[in-house]
Amino acid sequence: MTFPAILFTIIGILCVLYGIAVFLIRSGTMFYAVWLALGTCFLLMSFLIRIRFFDKLPKIARALLLIAAASVIVLFLICEGFVLRGFGSRAPEGLDYLIVLGAQVREDGPSAVLKYRLDAAVDYLKENESTLCIVTGGKGESEPLCIVTGGKGESEPLTEGEGMKQYLTAQGIDPARILVEDQARNTVQNIQFSKQLMTSPGASTALVTNNFHVTRATALARKQGLTNVYAIAAPSDPVYLPNNMFREFFGLTKDFLAGNL
Question: Is the dihedral of CA 208, 212, 214, 216 positive or negative?
């Protein structure tokens, strides 16, 4: 077996195993299937290499395949580069608003992804008592005011907004500072509906989300007119970071094609 065939076989097996691992953690989405499909594609490529399928193709066909593969790889690397730029995002003190983007809520409370975001928001709120905090969540999204937005996913016991409010209250945030928006179903709606709760669209704002999501969320917010916007990059689980970053590639592509960016 040639080196490329061995390499594709190893990558294919790793992708399948990783997809199974993502499935087992009950992430709330079907994205694990992408890893399974990707692994299958790599295994198929290994098989085609072993039977010398590509050697039998006309030169022009091989050239077109190489160009297409190179284009996808370059696009992927560019997108991931933009994603990595958001990892160290921090916001100045004394902002008018926080917008904390929601994620899955489970029977026992916020998912790990959402808990990272809420903890980062709590830290900022306790240190900046004049900041109005907009925490947004949704469906796969004259004290400081906290606006919590988010709809209820089919598998969630309550709306993400309500779940986030409960968590913030338990962490010592005065419930009087929290407003709940429970209709948003994606990040675009999170920002759109939260913006309607702001007294001034030109107010200084920070999005609070996980590091892998900062770039896309910030771009979506600016597209919707939040010009004075920053971001606070909450941590994320290193084990599942590859899955989240891979999802962002598709998210950036989708929102760009949809005109949201």
Answer: negative
Beta strand spans in 137-203 (E)? 146-149, 178-181
- Determine the number of helices (DSSP H) and then strands (DSSP E) in the chain: 8, 8
Q: What is the pLDDT of residues 193-222, one digit of tens each?
A: 988 888 876 889 999 999 999 999 999 999
H-assigned helices in 25-58:
32-50
Compute and round to an integer the Cα radius of gyration of the chain.
Answer: 21
Residue 241 burial class via C-beta count within 10 angstroms: exposed 0-12, middle 13-18, buried 19 and up? middle
What pLDDT is recorded for position 141? 45
DSSP bridge pairs for 207 = 99, 231
Please report the pLDDT score of residue 152 as a whole number.
Answer: 55
pLDDT at residue 75 tops 50: yes
Question: How much of the chain, in percent, has pLDDT values that exceed 90?
Answer: 59
Global confidence as pTM: 0.85
Residue with tokens 């989708």: 254
DSSP notation for 75-98: HHHHHHHHHHHTTT----SS-SEE
- Give the pLDDT mean for 10-25: 94
Measure the CA–CA gap between 254 and 221, rounded to whole angstroms.
Answer: 16
Take residue 236 and report the two structure tokens written for it: 């994320």
Backbone phi and psi for residue 101, each to the nearest 5 degrees, phi listed first = -75, 135
